[in-house]
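Reminder to self: keep the SMILES exactly as supplied, no canonicalising. Ligand is magnesium ion.
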Amino acid sequence: MSSHVPSRSAAPADPPIPAGGPVLELRALTRTHGSGIAEVHALRGVNLSVHAGELVAVMGPSGSGKSTLLTIAGGLDTATGGQVIIEGQDIAGLGQKGIAALRRRSVGYVFQDYNLIPALTAAENIALPRELDGVSVRKARKEARAALEEMGLLEIADRFPDEMSGGQQQRVAIARALVGDRRLVLADEPTGALDSETGEKVLALLRSRCDQGAAGVMVTHEPRYAAWADRVVFLRDGSIVDQTLTDHSDADSLLTSEAAK
Ligand SMILES: Nc1ncnc2c1ncn2[C@@H]1O[C@H](COP(=O)(O)OP(=O)(O)OP(=O)(O)O)[C@@H](O)[C@H]1O
Ligand SMILES: [Mg+2]
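Structure tokens returned for the bound complex:
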């Protein structure tokens, strides 16, 4: 067990006290697909607040609504009901262009299936959102190389996605989500394709971004990765059924809660 307890030597002992309101607030969020007999309630009234400095893990069985929650929180899908408030702004009032600008500037998103652009290299994939947001090509490429170096992937900077392993693609997608001043990082199973050592490194990086002031939400199936979070939210059939504060000195409490499902 002890090998699964994250070492947080690089992180402060206590999470910073959140200043101001939450970075992300979900209020009575619902999402229904289809209608009539084919109706699927992917989310049934989810409330969740995530402050700067906080990392929240979302766990739950397949189909419980984890990806739906994340895509709506990131403005990639629209809720059927309820509100998504990012840094005090209800995103419904921003319009398509406003939401796109907010996503480019403030939201880092790691997709469950990576979503790298096949015609761009690793470095270009990471630089693209920054260039679209007005950062000079030169600066964006420099940042991209630094982000790849942080991931231990500098040697694949000029490779295209189909020349990378699944784990490399996943890490490039994570680098893309973390580059720049992202105040909200949403990661859908960011460690799914990684071996446990690389997975821990990615979690350490995500944790350190949150310790520096970002708010993070991460979907995971692995209790040992969830143990890096400040809080774990359990979803079942589109509802939050449990929330656990993680005790970083002992991941067993989390494992027990998970096993009780
Ligand atoms: N476009 C869609 N049309 C109809 N139903 C959908 C659609 N997208 C998702 N769903 C349904 O909504 C529910 C929640 O899906 P979601 O992808 O959020 O689950 P998940 O918890 O992320 O699962 P997994 O762990 O497998 O990734 C599921 O029942 C799914 O079948
Ligand atoms: Mg999913």
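Points to follow up:
Residues 196-211 form the longest helix (16 residues).
Confidence is low (pLDDT under 50) at residues 7-18, 249-253, 255-261.
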